Structure formats: structure tokens, C-alpha cells
Amino acid sequence: FEGVSDFKPRSGILTGNGARYAYKIKMMGINTAIETEIYNFVPNAGWDGKATKGLPHQTHWIFTAQGDQTKVTYVLEYELPFLLVTSWMDSLIMKPQWQKILNKSFENLYNHFDNG
Fold this sequence. Notes:
It is built from 1 helix and 6 strands; from the N terminus they run ββββββα. The protein is an alpha+beta fold. A 6-stranded antiparallel sheet has the order 1-2-3-4-5-6, with helices on one face.
């Protein structure tokens, strides 16, 4: 995942419901520490993640079989804790940055499996 580093498990559970991971994400040159817990885990179908530390967010990963391929759907919901960040600033600055990160991340994923 583009911009993610220092990925470390934070619970005795490494896969599935209750697994927690701490990591850093770099966005616009700033490293931010985050911890996420996994829930609604269904093998080969997807999972949800919710922030337990750091920037408030939820993620939804959905894997759908399409013949011999898999469609990956990723949904990110987040809250900006900065009092001065308005919805237009989010639209003009934050969302385009997230989109760049996601585009590069999915390009990396595609290249990993296409060349693997």
C-alpha cells in the first residue's frame, strides 16, 4: 500500500476478526501513526477495518470473483480532525491526495499479481 510503512501486529491475532495493526502513513510529506482493528472478516470475500488510534477512519475491502480474476473494491471513510479543514478543502486537497495514493497502491497490487 503506497505510503504505508512500519506495519506491525498489535494483537495476538494475525488474521481475521480482532487482528490489530499499527503503521505509519505518509501523505503530503507528513508521517502519521495509525492503528486499525479488523472486523467482519470473511476469507476470500473481504473485511472491514476501524481506527483504534490516530486519524479516525474505516475501511472496507471487498473481493469479488469474476471468472479467473478478482475484482477488488476499497472504500475509505475518514474524518479530518483539523478544525480549519472544511469540506471544500477536503475536496480540493485531501481527496485528490488519497486518490493518488489509492491509484498507485492498486497499480502496485496489479503489477505484483500480473508479474507474479
